């Protein structure tokens, strides 16, 4: 293990610091001999509890040989797509995706500010699973597979940092997970609402400008959300809808009915991406993802140090994951309100598969594609019933309670969303089954001693959001 902790790597500093050729485990995060400059942006950093991760530094972990991988491009000038930048590659979906693409033969770089780990510290919460540092994760991946993943540590809202990362790595595709992804987090207080919109909208704008300036052929694969659509009383199409009004017909972007400041940031992203595709000829795919469940992929299951995070708290935890952990520790399943809220769901293994398919089948220059990324639809009550049945089969006494809904949403509604485009590209879904629920429940049981019961109940109210910053947990 000692040889892994002294892996040679290169630290590129754009603020005038000398590069380090060798870094120890303790010095990898912030080398003591280098001072980090604050980026010069035309707006002030917003005030949310804790310091924003904003530096001009670029941390690179070794160099990867040419993989020789090609995907099907739409023109000869764009025939190569070997290098993929995964923004937000330390997060739940991003980490699993980065490993999956690396194993598939892509040359991968992770860009991440590591701010998601800071959120846990601020709110006093933690992943159910113990998470290794990003540096130990990457060393372990190299030791197991012989494959390198480069790491650029910094904030994409700092355009100078992002520019240096683009010019250094020269991506052919960018997978953009690098956003604050929790609706409850965006509804805690004013500062976190502002942070969410600033981080998500400005960060995505910076990515679009970086593509335009430095890699204009680059394909943007952006993680959107099914939450952009809301719960309309008509079928949800994939991004666009053809309507006839006063005798004239047109195909228009599907109407958006976002339900939190987080979801609104995603709507703004979609509008900005659509405009830049039309104005600059950028190619982009918006993956409007449903609710993700599960923790294991083929790659993250290779070693404990590669294990993905699993959130169960009321801020970052999603319904099925939360229910399985509640069942494992004997806490009643918390159904919000009437429980008729219906959404699209998919396995984390299908998330990485969908991203790979989008990269391997890029659209034309100037095309803004929208894929609805989910495999099945369930109501909250249906999920609770499935977890109850699976838990009882394992000898667990699973109870369900209805708690006041902290959100402002319809609790009984029509919901029928189309999701055919990824299937047509070859998606082979992992559908929710008894065996998968058993596996997830057993995983939750394995780590149940790490559960903090104070984090289970919802603590963020949509109507209670205020100006004053507040601490969510005791």
UniProtKB/TrEMBL annotation:
* InterPro entries, per database record: Epimerase_deHydtase, NAD(P)-bd_dom_sf
Source lineage: Eukaryota, Viridiplantae, Streptophyta, Embryophyta, Tracheophyta
User: Which family is annotated?
Assistant: Belongs to the NAD(P)-dependent epimerase/dehydratase family.
Q: Which organism is it from?
A: Trema orientale (Charcoal tree)
Domain NAD-dependent epimerase/dehydratase spans what residues?
Answer: 84-372
- Classification via PANTHER family: DTDP-D-GLUCOSE 4,6-DEHYDRATASE-RELATED (PTHR43000)
Query: This chain belongs to which protein, by name?
Result: NAD(P)-binding domain containing protein
Per the record, the coiled-coil ranges are none
CDD domains associated with the record: SQD1_like_SDR_e
């Amino acid at each position: 293990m000692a040889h892994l902790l002294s892996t040679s790597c290169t630290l590129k500093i754009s603020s005038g610091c000398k590069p380090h050729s060798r870094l120890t485990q303790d010095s990898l995060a912030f080398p003591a001999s280098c001072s980090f400059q604050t980026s010069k942006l035309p707006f002030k950093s917003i005030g949310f509890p804790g310091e924003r991760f904003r530096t001009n530094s670029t941390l690179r972990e070794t160099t990867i040989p040419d993989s020789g991988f090609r995907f099907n491009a739409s023109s000869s000038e764009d025939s190569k797509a070997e290098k993929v930048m995964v923004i937000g590659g330390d997060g739940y979906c991003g980490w699993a995706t980065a490993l999956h693409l690396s194993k598939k033969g892509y040359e991968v770089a992770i860009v991440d500010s590591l701010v998601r780990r800071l959120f846990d510290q601020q709110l006093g919460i933690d992943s159910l699973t113990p998470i290794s540092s990003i540096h130990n994760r990457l060393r372990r991946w190299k030791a197991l597979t012989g494959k390198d993943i480069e790491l650029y540590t910094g904030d994409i809202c700092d355009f100078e940092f992002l520019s240096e990362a683009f010019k250094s790595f020269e991506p052919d595709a960018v997978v953009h997970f690098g956003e604050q992804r929790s609706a409850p987090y965006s509804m805690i207080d004013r500062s976190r609402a502002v942070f969410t919109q600033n981080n998500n909208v400005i960060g995505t704008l910076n990515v679009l400008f970086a593509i335009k300036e430095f890699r204009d052929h680059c394909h943007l694969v952006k993680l959107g959300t099914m939450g952009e659509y809301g719960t309309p009383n008509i079928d949800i199409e994939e991004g666009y809808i053809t309507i006839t009004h006063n005798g004239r017909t047109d195909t228009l972007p599907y109407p958006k009915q976002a339900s939190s400041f987080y979801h609104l940031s995603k709507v703004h992203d979609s509008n900005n991406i659509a405009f830049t595709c039309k104005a600059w000829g950028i190619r982009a795919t918006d993956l409007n993802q449903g609710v993700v469940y599960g923790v294991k992929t083929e790659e993250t299951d290779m070693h404990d140090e590669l294990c993905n995070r699993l959130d169960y708290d009321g801020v970052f935890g999603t319904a099925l994951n939360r229910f399985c952990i509640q069942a494992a520790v004997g806490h009643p399943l918390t159904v919000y309100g009437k429980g008729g809220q219906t959404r699209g769901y998919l396995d984390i293994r299908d998330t990485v598969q969908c991203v790979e398919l989008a990269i391997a089948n890029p659209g034309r220059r100037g095309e803004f594609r929208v894929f609805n990324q989910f495999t099945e639809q369930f109501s909250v009550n249906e999920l609770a019933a499935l977890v109850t049945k699976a838990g009882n089969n394992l000898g667990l006494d699973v109870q369900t309670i209805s708690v006041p809904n902290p959100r402002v949403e319809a609790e009984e509604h029509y919901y029928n969303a189309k999701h055919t485009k990824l299937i047509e590209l070859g998606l082979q879904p992992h559908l929710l089954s008894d065996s998968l629920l058993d596996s997830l429940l057993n995983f939750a049981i394995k780590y149940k001693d790490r559960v903090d019961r104070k984090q289970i109940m919802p603590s963020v109210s949509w109507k209670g959001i205020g100006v004053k910053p507040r601490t969510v947990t005791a």
